[in-house]
Automatic annotation (TrEMBL):
Pfam families: ABC_tran (PF00005). It comes from Pseudofrankia asymbiotica. Residues 8-253 form the ABC transporter domain. One of its GO terms (molecular function) is ATP binding. Coiled coil: none annotated. Keywords: ATP-binding, Lyase, Nucleotide-binding. SMART domains: AAA. It comes from the Bacteria. The keyword Protein biosynthesis does not apply. The keyword Ribonucleoprotein does not apply. NCBIfam families: CP_lyasePhnK (TIGR02323). GO terms for biological process: organic phosphonate catabolic process. This is Phosphonate C-P lyase system protein PhnK.
């Protein structure tokens, strides 16, 4: 793990829906190249936390500091919308559970991967197409499908295309919301392998929400366990899953073991 200072520093973060807290009191340091899994049962606040950290939901209380590529750390609630939009174009990615939320379903695969490059100033058509073809190869989509739209792709291919669209600009931080659920088990395993190798190769920092502890085990360095909107346990993934301290985590782990 590289980098002497955290990429993301979260203190006492919370998001409130009306008069109910979706998540609250969350502290977290994410280091460059580190993968953190957020686990917990349905309704525990995982998606709300991911939304809050990624600025898709407002921060009702607390603070989130992000250290940008230029080395400057800034409070995300203070930098303004256009700076956050710039982060999305250049430093951040978001992989949705449903590829339709992260892709343009009727635009060609090459267009889906080329668009983010154009948004960062790439202009040369030949180079954009070559970069898109290279990314299709990396995510194991046959390059002869480059002119086909994702509506014609299988679920696994769509998800791999969404990953290519996110990673083509070499982001530093990628948020993932249940990226493998909804796929067949064998497709899931292959996708997880791909995500794991790309994340390691590119040195990405990732926050991944999953209800599947096997996904957390396979892909993450650290795990946060959520219950009722709070992080009730956190630590190295192997420690949390092999030697859970909180009674709730013990239950979560044993319910998986019992199938
Ligand atoms: N748009 C919303 N308006 C009001 N309450 C919401 C909204 N979205 C989520 N909540 C509430 O916030 C709490 C946390 O929900 P959240 O979706 O973050 O949980 P989750 O762990 O991601 O669940 P799942 O695994 O089912 O997606 C729940 O009590 C939920 O009912």
């Amino acid at each position: 793990m590289s980098g002497a200072r955290p990429l993301l520093q979260v203190r006492d973060a919370g998001h409130r829906y009306g008069d109910r807290w979706g998540c609250r009191g969350v502290d977290l340091d994410l280091w460059p190249g580190e993968v953190i899994a957020v686990v917990g049962e349905s309704g525990s606040g995982k998606s709300t936390l991911l939304g809050t950290l990624s600025q898709r939901l407002s921060l009702t209380e607390g603070s989130i500091r992000y250290r940008a590529a230029d080395g400057e750390a800034a409070d995300l609630s203070e930098i303004g919308e256009s700076a956050v939009r710039r982060l999305w174009r250049t430093e951040w990615g978001f992989v949705h559970q449903d590829p339709a939320d992260g892709l343009r379903m009727h635009v060609s695969a090459g267009g889906n991967v080329g668009e983010p490059l154009m948004a960062t100033g790439w202009r040369h058509y030949g180079r954009i197409r070559a970069a898109a073809a290279e990314w299709l190869r990396r995510v194991e989509i046959p390059v002869d499908r480059i002119d086909d739209a994702p509506v014609t792709f299988s679920g696994g291919m769509r998800q791999r295309l969404q990953i290519a669209r996110n990673l083509v600009v070499s982001p530093r931080l990628v948020f993932m919301d249940e990226p493998t659920s909804g796929l067949d088990v064998s497709v899931q395993a292959r996708l997880l392998d791909l995500i794991r190798s790309l994340v390691a190769e590119l040195g990405l920092a990732v926050i991944i929400v999953t209800h599947d502890l096997a996904v957390a085990r396979l892909i993450s360095h650290r795990t946060l366990v959520m219950k009722d909107g709070r992080v009730i346990e956190s630590g190295l993934t192997d420690r949390v899953l092999d030697d859970p301290q909180a009674a709730y985590t013990q239950l979560l782990v044993s319910s998986i073991l019992q199938g």
